[in-house]
Amino acid sequence: MARDTARVHAAITAAAGFLIAVLWFDLMFDVQVVPHRHAPAVPEDVTDSIASYYRRVTTEASPMGRLIALVMMCLLALLAWQAARGGTPAWVSVVSLAAAVAAISLAIGKVVPAAVRLGSQRDPHATQSVLARTIFRDHVVFLGLMLTVLIVQLVGG
Questions:
Q1: Please, what is the angle between helix 112-120 and helix 44-55, to 10°?
Q2: Which end of the chain lies in a sparser environment, N or C, as judged by fewer CB atoms within 10 Å?
Q3: Percentages helix, strand, coil for the chain, rounded to the nearest 5?
Q4: In terms of residue numbers, what domain contains 74?
């Protein structure tokens, strides 16, 4: 039982670390909106840069995006297993599962559709500007939630 618990814990931290690493690459492009946070719109060259990145990673890189979805689903399954099997303090499982569910719901429900839409560049520039800012904000939230999973697992797991 202890060996299984340790393996699940290691897999959870690996999955959370993987998702944080993927997010880091996204944020390297998203952060371009920060210098323009008080401007009415993000400059077109900035939205073009961000949109180009999202076109590559959401549309042109298929099926690699499925790997990210697979890791997300594995993380949720591992956290559910951890909560059901015990061997880890209940607060670790509850906080980790809640943070992971919130992060993955945000990613699937909001971020990915917005990134695909921005990557298509079919909208007027003002809409693309809003999408770029929204994706950045949501990615910062996602990062906080995934860091919560990782830290809670490392501290309490």
A1: 110
A2: N
A3: 85, 0, 15
A4: 2-156
User: Against a cut of 0.90, is the pTM above it?
Assistant: yes
By CB atoms closer than 10 A (0-12, 13-18, 19+), residue 39 is exposed
- The pLDDT tens digits of the residues spanning 143-156 come to 999 999 999 999 98
Question: CA 126, 129, 135, 140 torsion: positive or negative?
Answer: negative
CA 93 to chain centre: 19
DSSP H helices, the chain, are: 2-30, 44-55, 64-85, 90-106, 112-120, 125-156
d(CA 97, CA 78): 9
- Of 69, 85, 115, which is closest to residue 9 (Cα–Cα)? 85
Q: Tens of pLDDT along 120-137?
A: 999 999 999 999 999 999
Identify each DSSP E strand in 30-114 by its residue range.
none
> How many domains does the chain divide into?
1
